[in-house]
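Two proteins follow. First one:
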Amino acid sequence: MNIREDLERRERETLSPFAAFSTETLGRLHEDDVCDIRLDYQRDRDRILHSKSFRRLKDKTQVFLTPEGDHYRTRLTHTLEVAQNARTIARALRLNEELTEAIALGHDLGHTPFGHAGERALSDICPFGFSHSEQSVRTVEIIEKAGKGLNLTFEVRDGIKNHQTSGRPQTLEGKIVRFSDKIAYMHHDMDDAVRAGILKESDIPREISDVAGKTTGERLDFFIHDLVSESYGQNDIKLSESVSDIMQKLREFMFERVYQNPDAKSEEKKAEGMMERLYEYYFKNITEIPIDIRKLLGLSISSEQIVCDYLSAMTDRFAIAQYEEIFVPKSWIAL
């Protein structure tokens, strides 16, 4: 029995004609062996799940820097919530769940420590800028496995690269993740903001809550249902015009009350300053970067890029430890 062929047959029989079929992938960067029991997008999902960059997400900030409490989201739990939303949508639309999940699990692999504060710092100080979506692609193509990369399919890399609002994914599965990322972060960030005492449910404007729901769960269900209803049987992923307007109002509310809230963001300037000083230090002392990262210099990659690779891969905790090791004086002890 050829299990792979059986799985390919099931895809053709059960998925929508608009789905990305594994047999039609545009392929990998490098020739690879074929697995006899897994299709290509499942292999990509597995490679991401077992990668070091995926494990590090558990110690990277989502919105609140080093919060006091065990129930605030991290970059890892954000990623898992994006993946769950995306799989729900993909299954309802009979699209490729394995491709959708692979993109979702990989979309933030290149994100900096300290959330978007770390990203802003690197973008400001690095002469060619910094984007976490581009860095996520770089992570899976080059940085993982000491420069060998994960050798993922084109469709997964395309979805990772284009997961932000401005992106234009080439598959419907990539478009699902783009919406799922936005839906997930707005809703779980609101939940965390309520937990932190920055928001109350009653603060949400009536024009949003009367239509989308009175709780985080109701609103999440509202947006996902509309996305599925509007996209079912279509060669596109979209919200209805009225619901898209509600989502934009919710996003504006979140930026005003949470993402730009001086209490929630009071420590971000410190985080940005820390990242900038670490960048300057390692740029001047490039040999202190681990050898497996510095090996990339042999590929004619700039020192600026190597420093960005190293810093963006750090967890919050490791970045703070490195900063203290380099810049904070220690007590002198006589020998």
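Second one, unrelated to the first:
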Amino acid sequence: MIPRELLKKIRRIEIRTSHLVNDALAGRYHSAFKGRGMEFEEVRPYQVGDDIRAIDWNVTARYGEPFIKVFREERELTVLLVVDLSRSQEFGSRDQFKRELVAELGATLAFSAIKNNDKIGLVCFTDRVEKFVPPRKGSGHVLRVIRELLAFQPEGRGTNIAAALDHVNRIQRRRSVLFLISDFQDAGYERSIRIAKGRHDVIVVHVLDRREQSLPKAGLIELLDNETGRRIIVDTSNARWRKAYERLADQELEARDRRLRHLNLDCIRVHTGESFVEPLVRFFRTREARL
């Protein structure tokens, strides 16, 4: 039995994200992702303006008049959301936690996929792979994906991106579109991403909260590392300490950015409490133009 409050959350996300798909993202998703190839459909008589390279010479010789081969794009894709549900996702300083933002973004991508008759699947991970929802079609399946994103309670606390991608590389033989959604508070995943990139179309979604980069002047406060459970008390009224914190946070963010740039991946950056629509539309536009 699904709790009533969770049903309300799922319904709110369903309404909001389906509107986004129909309004802001209409057609963008389809244009941004190619099908798996061209599939032969039929032969038909040659018409003026047809590409002569498509002439079927065997049929032409048999009937004594030109016929051409007609192909159609094999459009159906498999989209896999590979989602970080480590404890650091349970942080947010601007109206929502990172995990809630991930659920809305994942729902938007899932509805975009099924609107284009693609399959959608889900891999939830922490320091291990916690949940796998096999790719399927249909709005009922999307609602299951949203429910898992909102309500699944993982056992692990940390982040192991390499383990998640290694798992995907083992189970997903067919080429798929992978959305790797994480705050990337991890290291040592480069090799696994390179292998995944060789088999799949990998897109990175980097989830951030602006308060992680700077702290307010609020006197003595307790900071908790959600992934390790470590707690420290700091004096935020000390300007030198705040500057040192911001400098260290900027260095860590730049190191993460450098790793992702070096891997030459498409990257979408989103922040809690801010709309993810514009970064998503910008990504689709850029990808569409490149294709």
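SUMMARY FIELD: The beta strands are 37-45, 67-74, 78-84, 119-125, 129-136, 177-182, 201-208, 220-224, 231-235, 266-271. Residues 4-31+77-290 form a domain with the Rossmann fold fold (CATH 3.40.50.410).
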